[in-house]
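Sequence, please.
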């Protein structure tokens, strides 16, 4: 099913974590909507394959090798996007790390720090440099990828859950700070989505499917089912929406 808002064409969007899963699906959808897309992730080869696909379909893509846990690389990725396309209209801050799933007292401090560095500092640095670029050209729009665990908790995921609660906190605070300056900032809060991260987290695709049988949807989400709401939030159709965490969970949290 295609969903392409018609006001994204010709605009420029940065997607972090574009080399796989939800980020790749969103970058692909942005390309189909006629947008210029900067694909930022550590794995250049995977991003380059996707860039080729976007360009073959008539879109424009830039590949940026970037570790979102290194501030200078995030700053350079935003600068490279502006240098290539002239401005930054929007961003999907999606790069994330699940970390080791275990009880809180067994989490190594280094593992806890790694999750917070990628998921919290990474989103902070992304927004810091994106917002500066957007303020210079009169505004923009940001969507952060939080998670269902920004709103509820799952045992064994302390670091990840804490980090995604923080993403929602950053989203809400920044939304208040920048609405009057023309920047809307929202988050999406997906439940389990069939990506390499979730398959790894649940141990196998079969386990992921079994775990979601009890969801009203009875199945995991697909990356495109997150990409479409992200495009909606990036579009002018969402012009009065800011500071929200949009739950996309196959009905799980209303049970
Ligand atoms: N799948 C789910 O069930 C689910 C549910 C809720 C929220 N989410 C969130 O969705 C986002 C995307 O995850 P996914 O499920 O699509 O998993 P995925 O397919 O494993 O993709 C993860 C992406 O994040 C990038 N990434 C990880 N660490 C990075 C770093 N330090 N610097 C730059 N990029 C980095 C990876 O790129 P490289 O490895 O190339 O750097 C990859 O593109 C994450 O924030 C995740 O927390 C996922």
């Amino acid at each position: 099913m295609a969903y392409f808002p018609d006001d994204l064409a010709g605009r420029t969007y940065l997607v972090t974590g574009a080399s796989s899963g939800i980020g790749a699906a969103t970058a692909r959808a942005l390309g189909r909507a006629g947008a210029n897309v900067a694909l930022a992730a550590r794995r250049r080869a995977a991003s380059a394959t996707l860039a080729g696909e976007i360009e073959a379909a008539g879109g424009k893509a830039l590949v940026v090798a970037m570790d979102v846990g290194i501030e200078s690389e995030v700053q350079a990725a935003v600068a490279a996007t502006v240098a290539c396309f002239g401005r930054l209209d929007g961003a999907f801050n999606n790069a994330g790390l699940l970390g080791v799933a275990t009880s809180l007292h067994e989490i190594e401090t280094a593992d806890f720090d790694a999750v917070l560095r990628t998921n919290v500092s990474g989103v902070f640095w992304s927004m810091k440099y994106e917002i500066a670029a957007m303020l210079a050209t009169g505004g923009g729009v940001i969507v952060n990828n939080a998670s269902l665990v920004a709103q509820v908790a799952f045992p064994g995921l302390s670091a990840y859950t804490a980090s995604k609660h923080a993403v929602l906190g950053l989203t809400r605070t920044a939304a208040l700070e920048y609405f009057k300056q023309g920047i809307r900032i929202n988050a999406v809060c997906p439940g389990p989505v069939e990506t390499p991260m979730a398959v790894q987290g649940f141990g196998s695709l079969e386990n992921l499917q079994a775990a979601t049988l009890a969801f009203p949807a009875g199945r995991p989400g697909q990356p495109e089912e997150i990409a479409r709401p992200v495009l909606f939030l990036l579009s002018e159709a969402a012009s009065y929406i800011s500071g929200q965490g949009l739950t996309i969970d196959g009905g799980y949290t209303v049970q």
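The helical segments are 21-32, 44-56, 71-85, 109-136, 158-178, 196-202, 205-211, 223-234.
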